[in-house]
């Protein structure tokens, strides 16, 4: 059975990897953890759009309520 011996060899190779699981060398870890995922300009634009649209919507509701 060629399939059985091939499976046995694959199991022996992967058995060594199981013992190493979770032990990541420090060279592979990301050392720059303080970096923000979003840039400051993009964050400012997002806040401007969200807050601006909320304020604009409130003004439109007040004008529609006052016009009745």
Compile the SSE list and pairings.
Layout: H1 2-19, H2 40-66
Describe, in plain words, how this protein is organized in 3D.
Helices cover 66% and strands 0% of the residues. With 68 residues, the protein is mainly alpha-helical. The chain has a domain of 30 residues. The longest helix is centred in the C-terminal third of the chain and has 27 residues. It starts with a helix and ends with a helix.
Features of this protein?
68 residues; mainly alpha; 0% strand; elongated; endoplasmic reticulum; transmembrane; ER_stress-assoc; Stress-associated endoplasmic reticulum protein
Indicate the mean pLDDT: 81
Count the DSSP helices: 2
Low-confidence stretches: none
Give the SSE string. HH
Instruction: From the alpha carbons, calculate the radius of gyration and give it in angstroms.
Output: 29 Å
What percent strand?
A: under 5%
Largest sheet: none
Kindly, what is the distance between the CA atoms of the first and last residues, rounded to a whole number of angstroms? 87 Å
Principal-axes geometry comes out as elongated
Specify the structural class: mainly alpha
Summarize the structure.
Helices cover 66% and strands 0% of the residues. With 68 residues, it is mainly alpha-helical.
